[in-house]
Amino acid sequence: MLSRRTRILLAVLVVASLTFVILDLRGGQGPLTGIRNVAANALGGLERVGATVFSPLTGASSWWSDMRDQATKIDSLQTENDRLQSELEILTNDRARANALDGLLRVSSVGQYRFVPAEVIAVGPSQDFSWTITIDAGRNDGIEADMTVINGQGLVGRVLKTTASTATVVLIVDATSAVGGRIAGTEEIGIVSGSGRQDSLEFQLLDPMAEVRVGDALVTFGSKGGRPFAPGLPIGEVTEVSGAPGQLTRVATVRPFADVSQLSVVGVVTKPPRVDPRDSVLPTKGGLDTTSAPAPLGGAGNGPAADAEQSDSPTTETAATPAPSGSGNG
Length: 330
What we know:
12 strands, six-stranded antiparallel beta barrel, about 25% strand, single chain, Thrombin, subunit H
């Protein structure tokens, strides 16, 4: 049991509590108002201090959440950017191949060359040759050794050897390469030799007294049966002439029209034109009509009857569909 003193103390505290409650309920400026205001101000100050002290800790969670959201957005944007870059590269490559094939078709359209289109799949030396490429068409597509290889700018080289599905091509810039050339307009002939450099050929006239000037364009005068070189194909343009007329060492430097460092789509001439196109295929000096529509792929002329009655329009032979036996590819 509680002692008498304890009971008296509890009674006093209860009475005092009831008195303070009654006074507070009545309002006004009672004795508790000042105490309550002082307590409120003290607690408000403590709240402000606590908010200042602990705000970095309470904001850390929100900051970390924002950082994770930003990192996720950055990763998403990077993935989207990579996808768009890949699509752009594919589109650029497709456009380049389309332009290369379009140029090839225009050369064929003007010069009346029958060819098999192919794509370059490898570049590198082969056997004793330094400048060679490998294309994705071979014997199964009607391609044989010593066939002429061209692109939209003109002569590229000749077929060295074939497999069932590929062929190795020696480029005209190879140091071992030589092709008969003719100066457009003057009809002077000579030998165009590779220099081993991608941007330079050498031209030596058979007649040391013949005139050759900077800016003259050269075309092939052709081989017997169109092999290894078909006639009328653009070779290059004279950029420099060394030696005086009459000197046996007189040589002209020629810049090839075909950029062998940027080959993509090429054509293998399986049948030369019936008539030498002369200078009509030249890409400069008004020789090539670049506004004419290209010949359609897979046109008529792939069979024996078409060979017997060949029209004036050139044809192509799709690499994926080899020409039938006896179609006149020789």
